[in-house]
Design a protein that fits this description.
Number of helices: 18
Strand content: 5-15%
Helix content: 40-55%
CATH topology of the largest domain: TIM Barrel
CATH class of the largest domain: Alpha Beta
Distance between the termini: 39 Å
Largest sheet: 9 strands, parallel
CATH architecture of the largest domain: Alpha-Beta Barrel
Structural class: alpha/beta
Order of helices and strands: EHEEHHEHEHHEHEHEHEHHHHHHEHHHE
Number of domains: 2
Length: 372
């Protein structure tokens, strides 16, 4: 078994969100460990081009892991060996994904119902590889079937170097606050590093979760999709409240990385537009959360699950950046793709705001950070 001590904050394997340009952006803000989007092991074994593309590592990534959805030991070993040949520093087994397409293939959270099969997969991969093998799980299949402690025991006995627990069941998806007490239970019971995951939107929530559970590290997921600079906040212990123009500058950097990765032509634009509007479905959830107001609120209930009221008059550019409508996200992505600089992008956003008008909010007049 390869021993591994993770840094305090890791980037989660984010389906669609963990594309190479976005990972580069996270590295810019201090991410020391990044992970690929989940790749199907069987498709990697078959050398399917779209799946092989997920294994690509950027030279700026200091420690890069590949996450695999695995259904049997043979595919897991062969796919992992391919990933290592292409530069992966470690392999993560997905035993927590709740998505139907993954479940129907007998992978992801399904393995929580087959912990002995998961253990055999881990054991085979550990024996075959010279890099660490880690596992990401959920609390269990559903509320009455919480078996993370048993799964974690089998995974450690099989030789895993680290286990990450997303403190919700497959059935719960994201509808309840993550159970960090369960993370703490695994910390007490296991000798390998236990990483906690779920509902971390601010640096002070990350610190509180580490103190609460004793976990070795926190894996950042949706919080980073909302705020790619979350790694920098966690490292500095300070909240950054970027202006509209400063956020646009961050988004333009992501666009630049997308152009470098997919190419700055019509074909590259088409490929990038599969990702960029989707990113704005998370970027639009950003709300400034100054520490003097939100530290105590976060201790009462996770900010990721909290509804936030837009107070005061917003500039047109700010209003459109907070717009939750998918069609507006497509137009923002296209505008930024064509923008020459930050000033031009901000001016374009003001024009766009006048064209699209204001979105309709719910009866409370509130917008949820966790919407969607």
């Amino acid at each position: 078994m390869s021993r591994w001590t993770p840094p305090r904050f890791l980037l989660a394997p984010l389906t669609k969100g963990g594309n190479l340009p976005f990972r580069r952006l996270c590295v810019d803000f201090g991410a020391k460990v990044t992970m690929s989007e989940m790749a199907y092991a069987k498709q990697v074994v078959r050398r399917r081009p779209s799946e092989m593309a997920l294994l690509r590592r950027h030279e700026s990534e200091p420690c890069f892991g590949v996450q695999l959805a695995v259904g049997n030991p043979k595919d897991g070993v062969q796919a992992a060996q391919t990933a290592v040949e292409r530069g992966a520093d470690f392999i993560d087994i997905n035993a927590g994904c709740p998505i139907h397409d993954v479940i129907r293939r007998g992978m992801g959270s399904t393995l929580l119902q087959r912990p002995a099969a998961l253990a055999r997969i881990v054991e085979a991969m550990v024996e075959a590889l010279d890099v660490p093998v880690t596992v990401k799980i959920r609390a269990g299949w559903k509320e009455g079937e919480i078996n993370a402690p048993e799964v974690a025991r089998l995974v450690e006995e099989a030789g895993a170097s680290m286990i990450t627990l997303h403190g919700r069941t497959r059935e719960q998806r994201y509808t309840r606050a993550a159970d960090w007490d369960l993370v703490g239970q695994l910390v007490q019971e296991r000798s390998i590093p236990v990483v906690g995951n779920g509902d971390v939107l601010t640096w002070h929530e990350a610190e509180d979760r580490i103190a609460q559970s004793g976990c070795a590290a926190v894996m950042l997921a949706r919080g980073v999709l909302v705020k790619p600079w979350l790694f920098e906040e966690c490292a500095s212990g300070r909240t950054w409240l970027p202006t509209t123009a400063e956020r646009v500058e961050v988004y333009l950097r992501l666009v630049r990385y997308a152009k470098e990765h997919f190419r700055d032509d019509e074909k590259g634009r088409k490929r990038a537009m599969f990702f960029l509007p989707w990113h704005f479905s998370f970027f639009c959830r950003y709300r400034p959360m100054p520490e003097e107001t939100f530290v105590e609120k976060a201790r009462a209930y996770p900010l990721m699950q909290t509804r936030v009221v837009d107070e005061g008059e917003l500039s047109p550019a700010e209003q459109v950046l907070r717009d939750p409508r998918p069609e507006v996200h497509e137009r923002i992505a296209a505008l930024l793709w064509d923008a020459a600089d930050v000033d031009g992008a901000c001016a374009g956003l003001e024009v766009l705001a006048a064209e699209v008008g204001r979105p309709e909010l719910d009866d409370s007049g509130e917008f949820s950070v966790s919407a969607g």
